[in-house]
Amino acid sequence: MTDPSAPAIARRGLMLVLSSPSGAGKSTIARALLADDARLSMSVSATTRPPRPGEVDGRDYRFVDAATFARMVDDGEMLEHAVVFGNRYGSPRGPVERVLAAGRDVLFDVDWQGTQQLRQNARADLVSVFILPPSRGELERRLHARAQDSDEVVRGRMAKAADEMSHWAEYDYIVVNREIVSAVAEVTAILAAERLRRERQVGLAEFVRAVSRD
To answer: Which of 156, 166, 171, 199 suits a disulfide with 130, CB 3.0-4.6 Å?
Structure first.
């Protein structure tokens, strides 16, 4: 029976980063995690690019003008930011902090450069996972199997993959995606273990003192 006099243990949320070269399965793993875990939500990035048809402000992106984005960067309101094809993208600090304080977790889909910025700005909250393919040949096969890109684009993605994978040692965990069900299970296990870290359990010291009394 639970002792009603024992103080409650709350939990500070964490920031789960998934990175990988294109085709390694990162997006599939992310979708599976989000579908199975109500305590995990996707970070909503801010961007200076205009909305595309069907996109909703605050759900898909937070759409801002260039001056607003620049001010947010200058004021330290971005956990990470980058320029992609002439548009600026970034992760606003405020919404993430509110989710973490409420004991829920935030999933980030960023590359190694974004992960470096997150580490600099919020190391204590960060859990980083790099997804590797089982082989170079399998990565190329998966890119072709998607049937989304031309042979030229696939060659470009394969050339970029080598540079991306060279940063594997900067991550907390490495998952080799040989089979998607197993890879999802491994990332889920990482998330479960990280949620139990002592430093993320707010009020743990008071709880231990209470249950240790005679």
So the answer is: 171
Q: What's the CA gap between 23 and 26, in Å, rounded?
A: 8
Residue 17, classed as helix, strand or coil, is: strand
- Parent domain of 94: 11-203
Cα separations in angstroms, 153 against 24, 49, 148, 213: 16, 23, 9, 65
**CATH number, domain with residue 97:** 3.40.50.300
Does 39 fall in a domain? Answer: yes
> Is residue 85 over pLDDT 70?
yes
Any alpha helices (H) in 37-147, and if so which ranges? 66-74, 93-101, 112-122, 136-145
The count of domains in the chain is 1
Residue pLDDT, tens place only, 106-146: 999 999 999 999 999 999 999 999 999 999 999 999 998 87
